[in-house]
Amino acid sequence: MVDHIAFVVPNISEAVAWYDSKIDIEIVYQDDTWAMVKIAGTKLAFVLPGQHPTHFAIKSELSEFPCADDEIKRHRDNSSYFYLKDPYGNAIEW
After folding, report:
1. What is the spatial distance between Cα 86 and Cα 92, in angstroms, rounded to a whole number?
2. Is 73 exposed, middle or buried (0-12, 13-18, 19+ CB in 10 A)?
3. CA distances for 77 relative to 34, 43, 74, 93, angstroms
4. What pLDDT sits at residue 90?
5. Can you give the pTM of this predicted structure?
6. Considering Cα of 46, then 27, then 92, then 40, what sign does the dihedral take?
7. Exposure of 53 by Cβ count < 10 A (0-12 exposed, 13-18 middle, 19+ buried)?
8. Which phi and psi (to 5°) does residue 4 adopt?
């Protein structure tokens, strides 16, 4: 199951404001460094350059992550994650 899609943007509040002016969004969370919104039931995250790559995230159990245990990292909300890049530079987060 896809948990969210993340776009890298230079300014979180400007990105949220732009999407809010164009599309019916629900703001789930927002601060100066990232935001999560819902659009038609799909979560979209806005992140700053250098913090996370543009990606889509798959919701899964730790045992399903395609990596070794020592490659798993933690977000500030204490959720676990791992990024895998395909040969074309696209990132997938578990």
Report:
1. 8
2. exposed
3. 12, 16, 8, 15
4. 87
5. 0.82
6. negative
7. middle
8. -165, 170
Length of the chain (residues) = 94
Quick: pLDDT tens for 24-70. Answer: 999 999 999 999 999 999 999 999 999 989 999 999 999 999 999 99
The residues near 24 (Cβ < 8 Å, ≥ 6 apart) are 39, 40
Tell me the two tokens of residue 59.
């919701």
Residue 66: closest CA among 83, 49, 88, 54 = 83
d(CA 94, CA 88) in angstroms, rounded, equals 18
